[in-house]
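Repro:
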Amino acid sequence: MATRYQITQWRKRLERKGWIGLKRAPAPRGELIEYHVIRRGWLYSGRCQLSDYSPSDWAIEGSLVCMLERRYGIVDGVWRRASPDAGPKGGIVRRIH
């Protein structure tokens, strides 16, 4: 599992490339975004539009909205606005080491 220091360095590297830290600014609800979130040793990555999700998803631990908007249970995360031709919405989950 990555150390807190390694995760912070990962986030800072992405911020230097134009990504925005979740602790710095919330992800916009009405726009297509790309995200990377670390939660419980797993890296969640993908594209979504938060306004597509129901308000009840806020209460579901581990849901995308809960992680991105409430930042519940996450170690760190980043987002950026996706270009319109970025590809389909969706996500993947990978184990981090």
